[in-house]
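Hey, does this match?
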Amino acid sequence: MAGQDDSTSTTAADKPAVLIIGGMGYIGRFLALHIHKHKLASEVRLVDKVLPQLAWLAPEFKEACSPDKFVQADASKEQSMPRIYDRANGKEFDYVFNCGGETRYSQEDEVYRLRSLNLSLCAGREAARRHIPVFVEVSTGMVYDPKSAPRKETDKTKPWTAMARYKLLAEEELSKIDGLNLVVLRLAHAYGEYDTKFVATALTLARVYQALGKEMRWLWTRDLKVNTVHITDVARALWASAEWYRAGKKGWDEKCGKVPLFNIVDHGQTSQGTLAHLIHAHFHIPTGFQGSVISSFARLNLDDVVDDVNDEILGPWADLLAQANITRPGPLSPFMERELLREQSLSLDGRRFEEVVGFKYEVERLGEGQVEQCVDSYRRMGWWP
C-alpha cells in the first residue's frame, strides 16, 4: 500500500534523489526526517533562504537536515534555479517537493505574489524543463468556498485568505506548464511537535488564560470546522503521492482532471468545540463560546475585536516568559491573526487520497495525547513558560 514505508526492496543507488524546496520550514523538515528515518532516498537536498542555525531545529533533525544536505537559495528567483537543481553527478532529481512559500498570514498581496506564486512557478517551470518525474506542490484547504460540509476536490473554490488566493493561482498556473508532472496536495491545519501555527496559537492562548485565571472563550460556534492533520501524516502523504505518481498513477481517472489533486486531512473533523474540550482537559480552565450579541458585533468590527484580544494577551505572555527566565523567546506566540478569526469553516473530505493512493492515516484525530505531545515539545525546546 502507498501508505506503508518500505525501504528494503531497493538498493541505495536505486532510490530516488529528492529535492525539497522550503526544506527548513515546518513541513519540509518533517518530510526530510521521514525520508531519513526510513532511508527512502539516495540523495536529499534541502533548499531554503533560512539557514539551519536560524530555523529553530530540534535535535532530532540534526542528521536529516545536516549542513551537507542544505543549499541556501531564493527559489522565487530564476537565477537561483541552477544552484537549486544542478547535481554534482549531472543527473536530475527524481522527486521535487515544493514546501516553500510565505507561511505568515495577513501579509500584503505583493508578499504572496513574490514569495509564494513566483516561487512555485519558477520551481515548476524548471522541473518541466528538466523533465523531473514528479513535482509535488503543497497547497491549502483554505482555497475552497468555506462551507461546514466537508469540501471535495471537485467543489467550488473561493479562497478566504490572501495566502490561499495565491496558492490557488499557483495551482492553476502550474497546471498550464507543458511537461510538468504535477501533483497538488491541499492541506488542513498541520500540527504536531514544534508546531507554531494554528493549533500552537490556541495552546499558547490557553496558557495565558490559565495564568490569568480566566475563561477562554471563542467567537462564533463550537461547530465551526477547523480541520487538522498531524505533521507526520503530512510527510507520509507527500512521499506516498510521489511514489504513487511515479508508479503510474493507478486509479486516477482523467475525468477528475488532468492534474491529480488531493485533500490531506485526518478523520477527526476537528472543530472549535474539539479545541475547547481539549484545552479544558489539558489546562484545567473553563472554556466556552461568546454569545450571539458579541459574535454579531465581531462580524462588523473584527479588526477592533482582534486588536482588543491581542492587547489583552501579549503583555501577560511576555510576563510568563520573563518569569520562566526564557531570555530568548522561541517562535511561539498567542498573537491572533485576523484572517484566521473569520467565521469560515476549514472542512475537508479526504477520502479521494485514501481510496486512490491507498493511504492510511496513523494519527486519525487531534486528541489529548497530541496536545500533550505538542506542549512537551515546546518544553524541550525551552519555548514554554
Q: What stands out?
A: The longest strand covers residues 134-140. The longest helix spans residues 302-323. The two ends are 43 Å apart (CA to CA). The chain has a mean pLDDT of 93.
